Amino acid sequence: MSLALDPAAQDLLFREARTANTFTDEPVTEEQVQAIYDLVKYGPTAFNQSPLRVTLVRSPEARERLVQHMAEGNRPKTAAAPLVAILSADNEFHNELPALFPHFPQAKDVFFAERPVREQAALVNATLQAGYFIVGVRAAGLAAGPMTGFDYAGVQKEFLDDDHTPLMVVNIGKPGDDAWFPRSPRLAYEDVVTTV
Fold this sequence. Notes:
alpha+beta
């Protein structure tokens, strides 16, 4: 069976997509980031809660502060990427639910009054949105280098607040020389899918 998506788009978004480790110095514009968001904001989340928040690290001073919190192997590429985004989960997302889920505005209080419940929902749904974001970066003709190797508490203290939980740091730009590691194996369909 063929997919509805054009094969070239399938390659761009998935089959040829890799985590980029080097980038050119071509800047990533605000317009490109806006276009990425305007595409991926339509990806579904539970109750349309949309808890993902994006912090763009553009200034040299902020970049220097971020690099200090990255794992040793991630520091050079984070320092050199044209744009770096910190993706986080907003644990107070429920305050937006009356506008985002207008047919049942009471969901804010009925389902998400308790902070631990919100934190779990925000973690799951913002992580889902982070996946959309990475695919959106690829759809914009850019490469993404998502990383979870960093000091989470340090990044939260430096760039966020107690209501935002960092999920990942994503380097963004046009891929540079030797940007890709060799393709790693993938699990086969029968190793992943179970029918009950």
